[in-house]
Design goal:
single chain; mainly beta; Neuraminidase; 4-stranded antiparallel beta sheet
Length: 372
């Protein structure tokens, strides 16, 4: 049987089992972009960004941007002024690892806390992700982080330089969720005694909530965000194919590496069957890969047609992707070709959307506003 016939047969089987066949097909590019792109500035190797919440105009137009090499920048999107933030902890840079996520505490206006994820070295050539926070001091010359405190370390530290994940998302109640990748070690994602391949729930001070982990069976979760209804969603890089959007439910197992709609690099098969093996099905998946680098659940008014939907930056897919979310269901909607690897997406203070590119020669920060 040819590969194409095998794919069609698989789709028919999935349809018979109640899985929408459109979830497995490559998403087609949308012909017309409903937005205009404006370059704001450029960075060397950007990884993540987060707008500072606050009660005044002086903070809401300020965005923090991390570069993998270890720099944290404060950018005023109104004026284009860019300042390096002092006091950032030392970062181990290798492979996919370096300075990672940046998230301001929901109560930033009162406590000035900024959370960072990054990679630290361990003994014998090992490494692991770290999450901590410091107070961001503004208005006193160069901005700086003061009193940085580590609240979580990925355990165990292992060799290799991939699949750290280390994304941070605050829940509506102020608690934290973090993603911990499988570190390209596969089986630890199914080991309840390991942090690898898990999503973890903790307080904003790092105390575990509800046991060792919130969910398991994950590969490399690079997008983690809450919808307005309080549901937690993630985007996850699959192996060769099988990139996913998942609705995260406490106590559930998402199957990696025992189930995936992708294949091992080199061609080794992985069982597609999730439900039959006791695992959660992804809500959306791609084959071939699009390499999702992040996730935003849009909540603004500038693009009312996107409200409540997922916006996903695609690295290998070189696209911005919209996934329509309706309660606990999701479906593919739009895929706009951006002509470059897109690493991160965030919402600005007036509902505009910002994208960070990620290329060999650096990356632009783009502002998206509705097309005329």
């Amino acid at each position: 049987m040819t590969l194409r016939l095998m794919q069609v047969a698989a789709i028919l089987v999935l349809a018979a089992c109640g899985t929408a066949p459109s979830q497995s097909s490559a998403q087609q590019a949308s012909s017309t972009k409903p937005f205009t792109e404006t370059e704001v500035t450029r960075f060397e190797a950007p990884w993540a960004m987060d707008f500072l919440p606050g009660s005044g105009v002086a903070t809401t137009k300020m965005v923090l941007v991390t570069e993998k090499g270890g720099k944290l920048w404060l950018l005023d999107t109104a004026t284009g002024r860019k300042q390096e933030v002092a006091g950032v902890p030392s970062v181990h840079v290798a492979g996919q690892g370096g300075l990672g996520d940046v998230v301001a505490h929901p109560g930033f206006a009162g406590n000035q806390r900024v959370y960072l994820s990054y990679i630290e070295p361990g003994p014998g050539g090992t490494s692991g992700a770290v999450i901590g926070y410091g107070r961001l001091l503004l208005g006193q010359g160069q901005p700086r982080l003061e009193g940085f405190k580590v609240i979580w370390r990925q355990s165990p530290k292992v060799t290799g330089n991939g699949h750290f994940s280390h994304r941070i998302a605050f829940a509506p109640d102020g608690s934290m969720f973090i993603s911990s990748g499988d570190r390209q070690k596969f089986d630890p994602a199914q080991d309840a005694a390991s942090d690898l391949g898990k999503i973890i729930h903790m307080t904003d001070q790092g105390q575990r909530i509800g046991g060792h982990h919130y969910s398991m069976g994950h590969r490399n979760v690079l997008g983690l965000a809450f919808a307005p209804d309080g549901r937690l969603w993630e985007t996850e890089m699959g192996p060769q194919g099988g990139d996913e959007v998942n609705l995260i439910v406490e106590g559930k197992n998402y199957g990696w590496p025992r189930a995936s709609y992708g294949s091992h690099y080199g061609g080794g098969d992985i069982p597609d069957d999730h439900k039959g093996r006791g695992f959660e099905e992804p809500k959306v998946w791609w084959n071939p890969s699009i390499s999702p680098g992040g996730l935003l659940i849009y909540a603004g008014d500038l693009f009312p047609q996107w409200k409540g939907d997922a916006l996903i930056p695609a690295l290998s897919g070189q696209a911005l992707i919209r996934v329509d979310i309706d309660g606990d269901q999701a479906r593919k909607a739009d895929q706009w070709d951006m002509g470059a690897r897109v690493r991160a997406v965030d919402q600005g203070p007036e509902g505009e959307v910002y994208l960070l590119e990620n290329g060999d020669s650096g990356g632009r920060l783009l502002k998206l506003t509705p097309a005329n």
